[in-house]
From TrEMBL:
The keyword Ubl conjugation does not apply. PROSITE patterns: SSD (PS50156). PANTHER family: PATCHED DOMAIN-CONTAINING PROTEIN 3, PATCHED-RELATED. Belongs to the patched family. This is PTHD3 protein.
Length: 291
């Protein structure tokens, strides 16, 4: 909002910090438990950030809605109502995410197992921080608004009586107009108005509902057809960029060496005295026999 009191930039930043704390806690716990850290785990913070920001928006939207159900709600009742509205959806999404990643730990691939352990644990911590840390931040931000303090500096902002004579930019950045001091009730957010008055009625039209059902049927049919065309295995060319030197290497290998079958490697698992001539001759004879 273009209001130096109602702007929630710091609240959004704290939501990102909450996701970051979840990543740090998860990684620290897994490293302490001795779970191997593989390269694929480095992608986990992006997943946690997406879920954490989504939970943050749900919490803030529920908090904003709670202010309109009573004339002068106190902080405790507003926070209780916020958790009552938001906690259910946040809990369900977290449970499904955690369950899906912990199921992935049953795989035989160690790298995938480590990735699922790190990410699933991070989702648990993200839920804990959202329900505790971020809820406290919402209350602190509400107290800042009630104290008529600036969103950036947290310093008290006076209410200028000559707002009409000032520019819109000056009024938005330097003049406070706290909701409890305003004679008019606070208006709804434009996004809420759009979904309530336009988006919702549009999709409740019977022809639009029929179109949605037909589109979903076409999507479902295409998905089933795609599943029947999936081939098991992976082409290593798809793991590299188009201009990588790996692409012509695999092309040449497939063209010139595919008739020879798979590559065979022999590993000596014991310590060997390579300086001993007799041992070297034995290894050479073993190699010739294998050939």
């Amino acid at each position: 909002r273009l209001n130096c009191i109602r702007n929630n930039v710091w609240l959004a930043c704290c939501g990102v910090v909450s996701a970051g704390l979840a990543v740090l806690s998860s990684f620290g716990l897994m490293l302490f438990c001795g779970v191997p850290f593989v390269v694929t785990v480095a992608n986990a913070p992006f997943l946690i950030l997406g879920v954490g920001v989504d939970d943050m928006f749900i919490m803030i939207a529920s908090w904003e809605q709670s202010s309109r159900k009573k004339e002068k709600p106190d902080v405790k009742s507003r926070l209780a109502e916020t958790y009552g509205e938001a906690a259910l959806s946040v809990t369900i999404t977290t449970l499904t995410d955690v369950l899906s990643f912990f199921i992935g730990t049953w795989t035989a691939f160690p790298s995938v197992r480590s990735f699922c352990l790190y990410t699933g644990t991070a989702f648990v911590f993200c839920y804990i921080y959202t329900m505790t840390f971020f809820g406290a931040i919402i209350v602190l931000n509400h107290k800042r608004e009630q104290g008529n303090r600036h969103w950036l500096t947290c310093m008290p902002v006076g209410v200028d009586k000559d707002q009409a004579e000032k520019s819109c930019l000056y009024n938005a950045c330097c003049i406070g107009n706290c909701s409890r001091q305003s004679s008019q009730p606070e208006g709804e957010h434009p996004m809420n108005i759009f979904f309530k008055k336009y988006y919702g009625p549009f999709f409740t039209n019977k022809w639009i509902k029929l179109l949605v059902v037909l589109l979903y049927g076409a999507y479902l049919g295409g998905s089933i057809y795609g599943c029947t065309r999936i081939r098991e295995g992976i082409d290593l060319r798809n793991l590299a960029s188009d201009d990588s030197y790996v692409i012509p290497y695999y092309d040449d290998e497939d063209k010139y060496f595919s008739a020879y079958g798979p590559r065979v490697m022999v590993v000596i698992t014991e310590s060997v005295e390579y300086w001993n001539e007799t041992v070297r001759l034995g290894i050479e004879n073993c190699t010739q026999n294998l050939e």
